[in-house]
């Protein structure tokens, strides 16, 4: 539990937010709606944009995340900025005696992530790595219906997003976003949450790039062999050289199959297809924020642990090694 500090029994948790993008906006809205939190300060990339963002959410704009984490009037740091900086900010926040929420991934490097988790334990501070994909309607529907298919032997998960022209932003930058399956860690985390430990990993990647700092498209496919014998393929692509959008999750078992295609879901058995209701994807950042505050104030359990996210990060690093070397990577070597 993290409510031993006296102020938490009588006052609001004071929050500093790093980031001014989409996720940061949803975090700010959630914090304003919960009477247990007070959004004190916001740090962003450009001070002018940060000032406008902070004014909208009744907070103070600061010039850097380093300044924000060093403040004495902040108890919790929420990290909603570029992937490259997640680890450094989380480490600094915890070192300064603050709780930390970080959008996945915790870091772009497994060793750094391990060190940050150890630091949180040593400081007795909450470290929460957000994985709202586990709270969404698709994942909950998967969990509810997955036993119907019997023994599972094959899973395919594909998210392809054609964009013409591709945006010149950090999500199309190798250094800022990271290896695709690390930057988009949720694609693998769905699988490790559902199916457990991975035995071997293969991966292939391709980028289309005409300038040094930003690429215009990427296509990445990994094959995971789980210790259970289950084979899973995960496809992730975005940008200009892709033409057909796809958001599809297939589960194939001895007794039937589950197919989730966009916002539609079906259970398939003996040639018949039965619709499955999929809940909304709305409000997940607010739900995640509420659960974090419940943890801080009341000691209630969270829906995911940093260690679970770390394991998926190891799987993603194995995929990166496989893509770079062309070899099968054994998880025992990560």
UniProtKB/TrEMBL annotation:
Source organism superkingdom: Bacteria
Protein name: Gfo/Idh/MocA family oxidoreductase
Span of domain Gfo/Idh/MocA-like oxidoreductase N-terminal: 13-131
Short name of one Pfam family: GFO_IDH_MocA_C
PANTHER family: BILIVERDIN REDUCTASE, BILIVERDIN REDUCTASE A
Domain Gfo/Idh/MocA-like oxidoreductase C-terminal, residue spans: 144-326
Record-stated family: Belongs to the Gfo/Idh/MocA family.
